[in-house]
Design brief:
The chain is an alpha+beta fold and about 550 residues long. About 25% of the residues lie in helices and about 40% in strands. Among the domains are: about 80 residues; about 100 residues, no CATH class. A hairpin with a 2-residue loop joins β16 and β17. Keywords: Signal.
Length: about 550
């Protein structure tokens, strides 16, 4: 029979923790392999007007069974989640969790660390400034008493020190002067440093407070998977809020009759995550728009029933459903109008055009606008000197540009003429431009000071007509003259408003000299347009005479 050692129970108690620690050490690598930590990065972002598609890339270790991508923005659209992986990864189901950023591990705002660092530096500066105040108080007490701390001792403890000699007084004064000078200089430096730190802290605190509501919650996506070897997994999702707007800079070379159009894009986002060093693509597509247009409603006719003496109250409520449809339609239209629009007719990629930025871009989540250059295009222009003498005795230079190849979304344009800034305009090849041919746009490059415009006083005569004088006859005559003081000939366009009758009782007869090129310019009846070439130093004359007849008993309504 084997004897039992009295120390055996104690040995077992000491061995269990050791075995447990050994087991945890063995299982730790298995846990790491099964649960891959989030090491994802944003690789590509496609920005639409009002939204963006973000693509994240994560490394998946061999043998991993799940992957969690944490700290994603709360504006993430769960319905848009897409997961793609290399052939070595088999993807199963995934779970989405939305929680407060404060309780999510590792999801602190990037600004918090920088803010704490600056606050610690400010606290250190204040502590050193307080220490200098103690030194300053000590030096003041020494200067007032003329001795060190020993002068404060009781009179009975020791005999009073002898009166210092002039040499000692001079040495003490020099030491106090030097120490005080160093103390005040250091205090001034600390004050400047504190002001600089607080100046750096203010924008960070303001930015953190501004996006506090957006950063209050975060989304985590946990994906169950099986990995044979190390591979990559790509997660894409849409977020609301980011967007881009096109911008242009148009420079007119009047001598060569060309316009250089520089394309620009203004990108901004406040989704809650910074886009750092990403491949950026701008798209004219609009995923947020309605996927189906409104369908026509039936147009029916019926005979109204005979009126009843006392209609039932329910009859008055019968037409109520119709306004509900109209209200829904108006709410949808209002939602669509709130979104930025890009009226693009030509398409380069199926149903949208994409602009890939060649370099990697960083767009912070602060609403800061980042301007990108998208290239330029030199287009031939047709120059027209346009004037409306009755409205203003001035002429303006207008350039008509045909639509260049590709898609050009509508946007604001800065206008330059011969290198000088003249103002702002808008480029929109999709909307009809005043007087421009179809598929082109007109840009006005400011006033032409070398063209002199004169409008003679209006000649207005009123009399009677008809056998009995029952009708009023009114004659109006306008005369204009335009002088070209350029060294070259110009193409002149003169606009004039002619009366248009909207009632059969009112007769209008118009005569022009010379005959205008168009009496409905820009598809507007009554807008008369003369267009002709005017040589150097030449003067062009234009006149319009209108006769208006209407019955005397009619009150004429006139609007100009």
């Amino acid at each position: 029979m084997r004897p039992v050692s009295p120390s055996f129970p104690a040995l077992r108690l000491q061995t269990r923790p050791a075995l447990l620690a050994l087991g945890l050490a063995v299982l730790a690598p298995l846990h790491v392999a099964a649960q891959t930590q989030d090491t994802s990065r944003i690789a590509r972002v496609t920005v639409y007007p009002g939204s963006a598609t973000v693509e994240r890339v994560a490394k998946v270790a061999a043998g991993a069974r799940s992957l969690t991508l944490a700290c994603l923005p709360a504006s993430l659209d769960v319905q848009s989640l897409q997961i793609n992986a290399d052939p070595a990864v088999r993807v199963g189901e995934f779970n989405v969790l939305t929680e407060d950023r404060d309780v999510a591990a590792g999801c602190a705002s990037p600004l918090d660390g920088r803010i704490r660092e600056l606050e610690d530096q400010i606290a250190g500066v204040k502590a050193e400034a307080s220490a200098l105040q103690l030194v300053d108080g000590y030096l003041r007490s020494v200067a007032q008493t003329g001795a060190g701390p020993e002068s404060a001792a009781p009179a009975t403890s020791a005999p009073r020190a002898a009166t210092p000699t002039p040499a000692q007084i001079t040495a003490t004064a020099e030491v106090l002067r030097k120490s005080g000078q160093d103390s005040f200089a250091r205090a001034h430096q600390l004050q400047r440093k504190q002001e600089a730190l607080e100046l750096s802290l203010k924008p960070l605190v303001a930015e953190r407070d501004r996006v506090a509501s957006q950063r209050a919650r975060v989304v985590s996506v946990t994906i169950n998977l099986a990995t044979e070897r190390e591979a990559e997994l790509r997660l894409s999702y849409q977020v609301r809020g980011p967007g881009w707007q096109p911008g242009y800079r148009a420079t007119l070379d009047a001598n060569k009759s060309t316009v250089l159009i520089e394309r620009q894009a203004l990108v901004a986002q406040n989704s809650g995550e910074d886009w750092g060093n990403v491949q950026l693509t701008l798209s004219t597509g609009q995923p947020g728009r309605a996927t189906q247009g409104q369908l026509p409603r039936p147009w029916w006719l019926n005979v109204a029933p005979p009126p009843q003496a006392s209609p039932a109250p329910a009859m008055a409520m019968a037409p109520a459903p119709a306004p509900a449809i109209a209200s829904l339609s108006r709410s949808r239209n209002a939602a669509e109008e709130a979104m930025p629009t890009f009226d693009v007719s030509a398409l380069d990629k199926g149903f949208a055009t994409e602009f890939a930025v060649p370099q990697r871009i960083t767009v912070p989540s602060s609403g800061q606008r980042v301007t990108l250059a998208l290239g330029n295009h030199s287009a031939p222009a047709t120059l027209v000197t346009r004037t409306a003498p009755a409205m203003e005795e001035a002429a303006y230079l207008v350039a008509h540009i045909a639509q260049p190849p590709g898609v050009w979304p509508a946007g604001a344009a800065g206008l330059y003429r011969d290198g000088a800034f003249v103002g702002n305009g808008r480029i929109d090849f999709g909307a009809p431009s005043a007087g421009a041919p179809a598929g082109s746009t007109g840009l006005s490059f400011g006033r032409d000071e070398l063209v002199t415009v004169r409008a003679e006083p209006v000649q207005d005569l009123t009399g009677s007509s008809g056998f009995t004088g029952s009708r009023v006859e009114r004659k109006t005559r306008r005369t204009y003259s335009v002088e070209n003081r350029h060294k070259t000939a110009i193409t002149l366009q003169v606009l004039h408003a002619a009366p248009v009758s909207r009632n059969e009782k009112i007769e209008v007869e118009s005569r022009y000299q010379p005959q205008p090129a168009d009496t409905a310019w820009n598809r507007t009846p009554g807008t008369v347009s003369w267009q002709q070439s005017v040589a150097t130093g030449g003067t062009a004359q234009f006149s319009a005479e209108h006769t208006i007849r209407y019955p005397k008993d009619v009150e004429l309504i006139e609007r100009q």
